[in-house]
Amino acid sequence: MTEPAKVETAAAAPVMSVRGLRVTFPAGDTGQTVKALDGVDFEVFKGETLGIIGESGSGKTTLGRALVGLARPTDGRILHDGIDMSGLGGARFRAARRDYQIIFQDPNAALNPRMTVLDSIVEPAAIAGIGDARSRRGDALDMLKRVGLSPELARRYPHQFSGGQKQRINIARALMLRPKVIVCDEVVAALDVSVRGNVLNLFAELQRDFDLTYVFITHDISVVSHISDRIAVTYLGRFMELAPAEDLIERPLHPYTRALLSAEPVPLPSAMRTHRRIALKGEIPSPLSPPSGCRFRTRCPAAGERCAAEAPAWREIKAGHWAACHFSTAEGPPAFADA
Ligand SMILES: Nc1ncnc2c1ncn2[C@@H]1O[C@H](COP(=O)(O)OP(=O)(O)OP(=O)(O)O)[C@@H](O)[C@H]1O
Ligand code: SF4
Ligand SMILES: [Mg+2]
After folding, report:
1. How many domains does the chain fold into?
2. Per the domain annotation, does 328 fall within a domain?
3. pLDDT, tens digit (0-9, with 9 covering 90-100), for 215-239
4. Distance 38 CA to ligand 2 centre (A)
5. Same domain, 79 and 199
């Protein structure tokens, strides 16, 4: 397998390299295993926003947690700037982990309701022993301003803020550690539609100002197409496709991506829509026993005999454009009867 081409929008150095990543969980006391991530390979390049899109249960959150060291690989490796953090001892692991932060969908998840927002923003830096109490407080007040909130609100408690404001506080909290990478897991999904755009714009501004790399997880194609340089499409613990955003949305090479794009109810600019609607039939199979061969085959309108027998290779079909389908070519996904 060749290395992925570097994206033009990002500097060349990969900040994270993911190789054969598997994360499994025991399924209660059934003796079975949930294959949340079942072999993914990709890089994240410095300064880019890599969007991750996929249906519920496809492994997006597990991937985000693994990327920041919160979920342990069952198999495979994640290299952060060339280093495998799982090989580091306690203190060195915690220090390295600071460079990789995650913000979750629930704006309340990381905020202690009994702490003022100032204390919440200061907390990660205090735990990490960065600066002294006075410098941390000054930095936190600056950060509050930087995310668009008045420092006069610093003594208030989380319940006195809206969801959008709380997400801004979470961003300030993550930035206190000056991370290299922030994984954003559905960070605008719980917000009122009217404030989503503003929060996404804030993420874009902060990326420039703080030289950040984002992994932006969402199930909303309009969000991911708005913010991403490249987009990866997940299905049942694997990547189906990965490409520069415009390429993936305008010229998808995998049947699943094509189906997802045509099923998307949120209005997309007409140039971003595929010509025909393709219904995504049926439920996602259980990650306890994914289908043999290609795991999308039970819902794929182009599935043939080979698809049940053989798992498709993860191939770079065009420069920087990867897909896992036996029949995808640089011209597009395989043709099928109702397309
Ligand atoms: N701690 C856990 N223990 C057992 N199973 C888990 C655990 N975490 C995730 N899973 C399972 O792993 C699979 C992938 O879950 P994950 O949360 O990563 O999906 P997701 O793509 O983020 O879904 P969503 O869009 O609903 O957030 C699911 O089947 C889920 O039930
Ligand atoms: S490998 Fe077969 S089942 Fe899988 S996406 Fe391609 S055509 Fe469909
Ligand atoms: Mg999730």
Report:
1. 2
2. no
3. 999 988 888 888 999 999 999 999 9
4. 17
5. yes
